[in-house]
User: Fold these one by one.
Assistant:
Number 1:
Amino acid sequence: MPEGHTIHRLAADLRKDFVGQPVTANSPQGRFSESAAIFDGELMLKSEAWGKHLFCHWESGNILHIHLGLIGKFRKVDEETPPRDTIRLRLVNKSAMWDLTGPQTCALIVQEDLETVISNLGPDPLRIGLRGLGKFKRGLASSKKPIGAALLDQSLLAGIGNVYRAELLFLCGIHPETPCNRINEDDAEALWDWTVKLLRRGKRLNRIVTIQEEDKENISSKSKKRNNSLYAYKRAGLDCRRCPSEIVISKLAGRSIWHCPNCQGKND
DNA sequence: TACATATGATCAT
DNA sequence: TGATCCTATGTAA
């Protein structure tokens, strides 16, 4: 679940449910009890996302910093949901209840700490939009890493994860091993444009959908049931949606990556 | 019941 | 590069 679109959507949903009326906070699991007690009963003033980081600001000036990591979830639950001991944090008010489980980070910090966190992040496409292109291009130009590794580097751009990196490279026709500094102007611009577009779509739909209208008709009725929203991610051995080749899987920056050997030209 | 896996990141070697 | 942390889910045994 958690790439940048998820976190921005979360920030917006939490804002809707909690900003404006006092929030009860506790830690059924116990591991966050002391900190939760500090802002328990306060007003949430603001809820925002930077890349994959979520920040909820409280009256006292304290800030709840959450990073979901690989397996974390922060979800709205029914008021009868039992307080299981995997729930790190539970937020409640009159109209809503949310449970946080398995976060990589859940900490109470102050503004200065927040600034340190975001100073280590590259441009966030969902905050800066198309205006972030310049920064992104400079980041690419100064790196020799394979683009497939760079896209996961949150200090180059903030919010992309393993699904989007495979899909972005497919849509731009770029081989994952291409060194960043060999990506030309047009490709860099296309990468940034698609990133902004796809993250916005993901936030709106609350899930990752990269498939384009013109490719929908090429999806055989056989596979119509599932897995129809992506081009490359987890599609090893299946037909490319745009040519007769098969999608191949490889490893890059310690994670699996998928690409079409025909549509995503080999780098030399 | 056990194990593999997951849209992440850090720390040790 | 590999081990590690956190939790839930699906599949194998």
Note: The two ends of chain A are 34 Å apart (CA to CA).
Number 2:
Amino acid sequence: MEKSPGAVLTSSPEEEEEKAAEAYGEEQQAGEGAAPVVLKKGPWTTAEDAMLVDHVRRHGEGNWNAVQRLTGLLRCGKSCRLRWTNHLRPNLKKGSFSPDEELLIAQLHAQLGNKWARMAAHLPGRTDNEIKNYWNTRTKRRQRAGLPVYPPEVQLQLALSKRCRYDDFSPLPSPQLPGAANVQALDAATAGYTSSRPAPLDLARQLAVTNQTVQFLSAPSSPWARPFARNAQYFQFAHSSPVSPSTPTGPLHPVTPDLSLGYGVRSTDHSRLAPLSPSPGPRVELPSNQFGQAMPLTSAATAAGLVPDQHQNAASLEKMLQELHDAIKVDPPAANGDAVLERHGGRENKSGGQRRDDDMDTLFDMMIPTLNAPETVPLPQAAAPNHSGSTSHHSSDDQDPSTVDLGVDLPVAGGASSSDQDWGLDGVCQWSNMSRIC
DNA sequence: AAACAGACCAACCGCAACTAT
DNA sequence: GATAGTTGCGGTTGGTCTGTT
């Protein structure tokens, strides 16, 4: 919105300017010992803006309480600072947020919580107030609709970071980065881990760089991989013949949450964001709650439709998962029952395998609320606002990042349909296109 | 056309951290 | 170390705009 600063004034800006000038003159005449100046509140006038800009031009930023004294502007220092930082300072980017910015905000919020100023530092030209307003309105709307607050990519990252407690939580790769740079960014994001633990992005990175299609022709031997197989209908198999979502006989639904594009980049948004690879080569697809339309498939039907040349891919993925499985152990449940994933060199202990399996189930549950009943995937328009998704309120300000538990409450949609609707491929219900759906 | 609801935005308030004396 | 002043941040409020009924 580009509202005029004086839009809500009961008097015109000119009148306000006149009043300000009068007050300024009176104050000058009154001199020392005069009654305390009654500072003005409310929207700023263009004249006040001009005075403030002129002051900053002369004296620079800071020392805001001196503005009133030096210019006669009837505003407190706080108000001056706010006006300057939010509206008058140069290089401010006005207008609505771009899809990239929206995604970055989601990522940053997942990472930082309500740290608007720190988020603004990652968004040049944007103010904390702007980001805060944006997030609050979008979040409120989505919660009311029972939709997940975070995009699926961010949910996955949250799921991984929530299940695994690490020494740090590295910056996310920028969605603006081109594909190769994103892989580098992922590397950079994981490179700072000095402990023996894996970086939280490792799983996704491995999946991203594997660059292979996946398939499950039979139940995987690894319990770690079973959830993937159980939800195989949510994987895309790039090697197979293209299966149209509308193809009645198509066993697979081409969902495309492409982690290889860096967290937060939907592969369905290639027009907006650079893909990892310039060529549409085969890639691993992770489960997603994105649906172009309803696909009431069962895993059995999915498996029945697999083509033989995908067998090798399944083995490849399973091998990769097994390696990951071997590299991670699960601590005994904490007091609160949370399992803690940690790296270790040996094989799993007796109970670890089951818990890893549970972890992956949990991950899928968080990612895809419909997984437990895929046959009931409703039509996109059947939103079910029966769950108040919640954002974590990170009240523990400035916690030591080495100990911070990014316990963001994953805003899982209560209704199976909500995520379908929200992250649909038709552009109607995308993250960045929510403004008028409720 | 009017009423209403929701979205959007600017600005205020209180608090905490920081800095100077 | 205590105090006052300043700055920054996050939560909240209130006004306007816009779409819907």
Note: The mean pLDDT of chain A is 51.
